[in-house]
Amino acid sequence: MPSASAISSSSWSSVLTRWFWNRELRLLLIHYGIWVVVSLLFVWFESTYLSADTLQKISPTIVKYRNDWGGYVRLSLIADLLYVLPVHASYWLYKVLIGKGKTWSIVLFVLYFISYALILSVLTGMVVGYFSLPLEREEALATIFLIWAYTLVFITVRAYRENRRRQRDLEKQKIQAELQALKAQVNPHFMFNTLNNLYGTALSGDADRTAAGIEQLSSVMRHVTEASHRDFIPVDQELRFVGDIVELHQMRLPRTDTIRIKTEIDWDEQPAQIVPLLLNPLIENAFKYGISIQHPCFVHIRLQVKTGTLYLTVENSILPRTRLEKGTGLGLVNVRQRLALAYPERHTLRVEEGNGTFLIDLTINL
């Protein structure tokens, strides 16, 4: 059984660890350390490069400690701590009061900040009295004003940066929510199309192709299920998924010279990550709107990943269709939205239509 002293030591260690990892405490300690270092460097510079007469005129305090560095270090450690603590305390009070968003809280903080000069006056008087500093009234007032102005700038900058950080977090959460919503749209659409493909294969009476299709579908749906819960997946998994989709579509099509399917998938085997299920709608649309048993048609797919960049070209024939058969373009809209959210300024998507051909050219800097 551990002794009481061991438990006490462990508790204190835990408390100190939590304090050390507290962001505000770390900032305070860093801030305090910077002030001490800067003040010591400032005194060293003035005492080294300025004459005694000049120092006596502009800063009698430095003259007093010119040959007593140990004394000035003690002065700096105590004075800087007394000034840094109110600076951070003022920011904490700002967050507490202004965060309420009430008129009375804003008025209260303004009144506090006006009276903050009085607090600094008391602290300055304590330092001057304790160390018996030869500080003139004008120099004391200048010190108080500089600390007051510094605190105002400190609060303003911290509040601005904190507000920007919150905005970035909210935007990130919004983007994640939108990506999940768009990803959720892909799954049922893909399932419907794939089952429809297998239904067509089964009607043809080809049991072997149907069995192979079911096995292929199992692999594809396993990928869809697992990838739906992840923000990014290895690019080779997505390439394999695209290959499986193409094979499933080919299974339902008759072997005829009027239907030409060409697929090229290449990867340089360099590790890369990609948003899952991103390319699927482009492949789906090519087969849905570019293939017909009654008309000569084609689908050409070239997918390449090289040195962290993905290149996809999908080209398919444009077939005559009735108004009801024309697509709504939701798949392409979905892809555009997901690209804008996941790869802003890191992708190009070109869509062309003409001469009986529909072309999609996509480049993503992964």
Automatic annotation (TrEMBL):
Gene Ontology CC annotation, any one? membrane
Q: Which InterPro entries match?
A: Bact_2-comp_sensor_kinase, HATPase_C_sf, Sig_transdc_His_kin_internal
Transmembrane ranges, per UniProt, are 27-45, 72-94, 106-128, 140-160
List keywords of the entry alphabetically. Kinase, Membrane, Transferase, Transmembrane, Transmembrane helix
Q: Listed GO molecular functions? A: phosphorelay sensor kinase activity
Q: Where is the Signal transduction histidine kinase internal region domain?
A: 177-254
Pfam families in alphabetical order: His_kinase
Q: What is this protein called?
A: Histidine kinase
Taxonomic lineage of this organism? Bacteria, Pseudomonadati, Bacteroidota, Cytophagia, Cytophagales
